[in-house]
Amino acid sequence: xxxxxxxxxxxxxxxxxxxxxxxxxxxxxxxxxxxxxxxxxxxxxxxxxxxxxxxxxxxxxxxxxxxxxxxxxxxxxxxxxxxxxxxxxxxxxxxxxxxxxxxxxxxxxxxxxxxxxxxxxxxxxxxxxxxxxxxxxxxxxxxxxxxxxxxxxxxxxxxxxxxxxxxxxxxxxxxxxxxxxxxxxxxxxxxxxxxxxxxxxxxxxxxxxxxxxxxxxxxxxxxxxxxxxxxxxxxxxxxxxxxxxxxxxxxxxxxxxxxxxxxxxxxxxxxxxxxxxxxxxxxxxxxxxxxxxxxxx
Length: 297
Description:
mainly alpha
């Protein structure tokens, strides 16, 4: 009995680590495609339309056909989550990556646990302990080091890009909070399908000229990367859900902090993005702070 439980836990850890790695890979692949000159909105239309179709087929293949029957009380929460938590996060992150490095954008995005902690500190909804407050200060100090705010050269990245990535982190934090508070009773596949459907509709509304002037993929390999990116959108969520079932949400969330170092390593290998020793120290501070916040949560 114990051996079976331990085997299931090991599989859960593997699922969670793979989820973190694929999330990081998704960011790097998106950055390479944006670097080819494909506009962010065009990429998002293709990515989310393909992803929603895949989720729809998966949901259709399930025996429980009631998954397509979303009850009326959840219509508004799903729309809010699809627009703010899902579509806005992706749009802001992609717009940021058109202006700054993937590593910097990811760092600001994955500060979402810090944003959540700040939310509770400001509102007083939940009591925040001393360790969490110190972690917030540590993460802030790490961000200052990474962005080189007080260096001799000053800020060397696009201020607008940094702002976009930081706001993406806030909407990503909203995604987690809102899913936990308003949508946790829904089956995961039902929530994902309708959330992505709402986001897809939003991107089509924002980009009505897509059918009139679709992007020209002269390079078949580029189109292949776009479709691969759509597949990457689905895989980490499914793996994370499997990981949560095997080892629980607390352990899976802590492992998810590996997304940032994975992104930095992949960005170094495939995008030639490098960081100074001071910036690396800042990243270590941020990861340590996020780990403490997740453990204390």
